[in-house]
Amino acid sequence: MRKAFVLICILIAWMGCNQLDDGKIKLTTNLGNYGKINPSAPKETEQWGQLAGEWDCISIDLDTRNKTEAKWYSNKATWKWEYVLGGHAVLNQWWQEDTSPNPISKEYFATGIFIFNPKTAKWEAVVMNSRPHKISPKFEAEYRDGKIQMHDGTGKWLVTFYDIEENSFQWKYEILSDNGKWEPISKISARRMKV
């Protein structure tokens, strides 16, 4: 199990690598080539696969470092999704514009890989990001009522993809507050890019 986890992490690092070219970020994969589902993959692979493509995003994040004066910041980002592992899994890459006014998410890059486990009927995922420079614990996700909800089993946070349409979707990251209510601390509105 440990070897499989390490291999997945190495794959994420290799597939999600970004290169700097004249100071600009350049993806290592071909623009417009997002792969396709493998006919022998679980049909649920389409649940994340429906996001294959590139998305213009507006991200709104709550800066809570100053507890008495929390402040929302908005900035632009790009989110790319594609089929990998021969069409059996989905990989994403996220990057913010360098001009982001948000001190928390400035120069934030992330990549994750998602694969459906037919034995548990759940998605399994791992994510790496440029902050805190480590691989996340394994996440689980479920598709229900047109929404994808992702968590790590702690019950402390929840990520939801919702209002998923062919050319748009919404995303929110919520934490469980001390009063027992879910409170959003980050929201994303995504529109599919025309390629």
Structure, explained:
This protein is mainly beta and 195 residues long. It has helices at 2-15, 45-49; strands spanning 18-21, 24-27, 53-63, 71-84, 89-96, 109-117, 122-129, 139-144, 147-151, 157-162, 168-176, 182-192. The strands form 2 sheets. A 10-stranded antiparallel β-barrel has the order 3-4-5-6-7-8-9-10-11-12. A two-stranded antiparallel sheet has the order 1-2. β4 and β5 form a beta hairpin. The radius of gyration is 17 Å and the shape is globular. The protein starts with a helix and ends with a strand.
Q: What does the largest sheet look like?
A: 10 strands, antiparallel, barrel
Report low-confidence residues grouped into runs of 5 or more.
Answer: 1-31
Q: Determine Rg (CA atoms, Å).
A: 17 Å
Strand order of the largest sheet: 3-4-5-6-7-8-9-10-11-12
Beta content: over 45%
Basic shape: globular
- What's the helical proportion of residues? under 10%
Task: Please report the number of helical segments.
Answer: 2
From N to C, what is the helix and strand string? HEEHEEEEEEEEEE
List the helices and strands and how they pair.
Elements: H1 2-15, E1 18-21, E2 24-27, H2 45-49, E3 53-63, E4 71-84, E5 89-96, E6 109-117, E7 122-129, E8 139-144, E9 147-151, E10 157-162, E11 168-176, E12 182-192
Antiparallel strand pairs: 1-2, 3-4, 3-12, 4-5, 5-6, 6-7, 7-8, 8-9, 9-10, 10-11, 11-12
Short description:
With 195 residues, the protein is mainly beta. The chain has helices at 2-15, 45-49, and strands at 18-21, 24-27, 53-63, 71-84, 89-96, 109-117, 122-129, 139-144, 147-151, 157-162, 168-176, 182-192.
